[in-house]
Amino acid sequence: MIDAPYAFAEQLEPGIARLLARNPSPFTYFGTQTYFLGERELVVVDPGPALPEHVDAIIAALDGRPVAAIACTHTHRDHSPASRALKDRTGAPIIGCAPLALEGIGPRADASFDREYSADVVLQDRQSIDFDDGKSLVAVATPGHTSNHLCFAFGDALLTGDHVMAWSTTVVVPPDGDMAAYMQSLNLLRERSDRIFYPAHGPAVTKPAQLVRGMIGHRMQRERQILRLLGEKPRDVPDIVANAYPGLDQRLVPAAGGSVLAHLVDLQRRGVVDEGEGEIWMMLPRHD
Question: Which of 11, 51, 57, 183 is most buried (CB neighbours < 10 A)?
Answer without folding.
Answer: 57
